[in-house]
Automatic annotation (TrEMBL):
Signal peptide from the UniProt entry: none
CDD domains on file: QueC-like (cd01995)
Organism: Keguizhuia sedimenti
Listed name of the protein: 7-cyano-7-deazaguanine synthase
Family: Belongs to the QueC family.
PANTHER family named among the record's database cross-references: 7-CYANO-7-DEAZAGUANINE SYNTHASE (PTHR42914:SF1)
Length: 242
């Protein structure tokens, strides 16, 4: 485990696989950790309803995590959903658009999330912003790129006269490695918690618990999660002694 840092972190925590893994990562690296979630009218709003119980279960996984985990902030960003016309904010079939991006892309979402998170962090005296952005296993969203996050960090620091640091632990790893990171951080207990108690499906379906977790099994989020889990399990079996 890396050396502990005394400065505080604010984690963008949706209640999904990636943000839960990032929260565990932050709890392993920082002595003070708070969480922030956003209600922007997403179709998969079920993720928001899971967050309180998920946070409590994370606390029970480790005494040190329980000690470090502080306030949770849930922010109403309904305006973003009102402005957006996407498959994540409307009852629309998921499809590719003429610009080469899937219609699950919500323009400005991560930019706004980070800006609001920085505003809360400013008030709370936290200096690190942690997000689950990734440009390895992703849908081509431009606001998930490392270049975007680095530029945004610069802008936030200039605009707020602060020294914020944006951390993206998943930026260069795929979904199988995300499962592996969870196993390294919290063992099988965290893997099982992510599998059964987080939500990633774009359509918000939780009728069936698959081997990799709940979801429709067909949307891009479910496909990535399922493929990553299968690769993760295969890797574990390969490494296991006969």
């Amino acid at each position: 485990m890396d050396q502990q840092h005394t400065n505080g972190a604010l984690v963008l925590f949706s209640g999904g696989q990636d943000s839960t893994t990032c929260l565990a990562w932050a709890l392993a690296h920082y002595t003070t950790v708070e969480t922030i979630g956003f209600d922007y009218g997403q179709r998969h709003a079920v993720e928001l309803s899971l967050r309180p119980a998920l946070l409590q279960k994370l606390r029970r996984l480790s005494p040190s995590w329980n000690e470090r985990l502080g306030m949770d902030h849930l922010i109403d960003l309904a305006l973003l959903g009102t402005l957006s016309d996407t498959a994540l904010t409307r009852e629309t079939e998921i499809a590719m658009q003429a610009n080469g991006l899937p219609n699950t892309f919500v323009p400005g979402r991560n930019l706004l999330f980070m800006m609001v998170a920085a505003t809360v962090a400013y008030r709370r005296g936290l200096t690190v912003l942690v997000g689950g952005m990734c440009e390895t296993d992703f849908s081509g969203y431009p606001d998930c790129r490392n270049e975007t996050m680095q530029s945004l960090q610069n802008t936030l620091n200039l605009g707020m006269a602060q020294d914020f640091k944006i951390e993206t632990p998943l930026m260069w790893i795929d979904k199988a490695q995300t499962w592996q990171l969870a196993a390294q951080l919290g063992g099988q207990a965290l893997v099982d918690l992510i599998r059964a108690d987080t939500h990633t499906c774009y359509l918000g379906q939780r009728d069936e618990l698959h081997e990799w977790g709940y979801g429709c099994g067909q949307c891009p989020a479910c496909t990535l999660r399922a493929q990553g889990y299968a690769k993760f399990i295969s890797g574990q079996q390969t490494q296991s002694p006969d």
